[in-house]
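pinging the channel bc i need a second pair of eyes. not urgent but kinda urgent?? the chain im working w is below, pasted from the shared doc
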Amino acid sequence: MRRTNKLAVIGLAVVLAAVGGLAAAHRWIGEHGPAAPPVAPAVPIVAGTVTRGDVPIYLRGVGTVIAYNTVVVHSQIQGQLTRIAFTEGQAVHAGDLLAEIDPRPFQAQLDQVTAMRDRDRAQLANAEANLGRYADLGAKGWASQQLVDTQKAQVAQLNSAIKADEALIEAASVQLGYTRLTSPINGITGVRQIDIGNIIHPTDANGLVVVTQIEPISVIFTLPETDLPQIQQQMARGPLSVLAYSQDDTIELDRGRLALLDNEILQTTGTVRLKAEFANTAHRLWPGELINIWLQLEVRHDGLTVAASAVQQGQQGAYVYVIAPDGTVALRPVMVGQVSGGQVLITAGLSAGEQVVVDGQYRLQEGSRVTLLHGKAAQDAAAQSLQRTPIP
């Protein structure tokens, strides 16, 4: 009986303590309000602004640089090379001397036919003098008509002989001229194929040297046939600009114009070939080089652009984090038009002047508080982001 009374007393004490604690808690909440949940720290980010301006619209392709002209310099006569007048890789102009063949045999031939002409001229002068005398004697009846006619025929024969001599002289002069091998075009010389002292032949497959014209220069590239209607539409409005870039799209090599749209589509690949021409005054395009081509179709006015690193990809498509005035971020879906030079053309989802997160998104979620990095910290973060984001 005593044990039961003791347990009852202990239970009553516990209940009274709990009621008292609960009453104290209600009284504290009434005086101070409920306890606030812990506040998450702000996430440091780099911000960028949505800008409005003119945005060029490009089609991208891969092309091969083609020399405007390529000439294998062959000899048109056989002879010994006595002089090499160029250096491999040298820039030459049309008419510049490249090499000389021993001219002595050809000079001797020219001298021989020249002497023949001079002999025939002397004989012609004598024949013409005789014809004059025979004509005077014939008029007085002291010479027969046959003698006069025979002398006229001899004069005509010698005139024909002189014409033949003139033709032989011209041929010999041409052969002598072939002893000087000159560049037929402006260009760059390649590897010399024959050394001085050797006999060069017209039938040599590699000739003396290859001269390649690189200024101006051409590029052959391909684009999908689905782009053909756009290209034709823009070509009807005027010439289209073409930009040549290195394979990693980091170096602009030259700017040119579209020169040709091929007259057929390659059925095996579903592509169409195009040809662009570049002045190439800096010689940054080289024959055989594989490069990227940007064909500018148009310029879109008042286009909205943001840094490429601001656009993220999710299950529902592309999105960006927009910074609200209260320092929080909101996830917003966007539509991307093209990516060029580290900038993204936004066709829907953003407005000019809005601020978006361009670096630090991996720690964000809807409603996260952010703090903006400035100065060197922002530059370092943006540089790291650019290294992680390849520029298409």
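so The first helix runs from residue 2 to 32. and Confidence is low (pLDDT under 50) at residues 388-392. — does that match what u expected or am i reading it wrong
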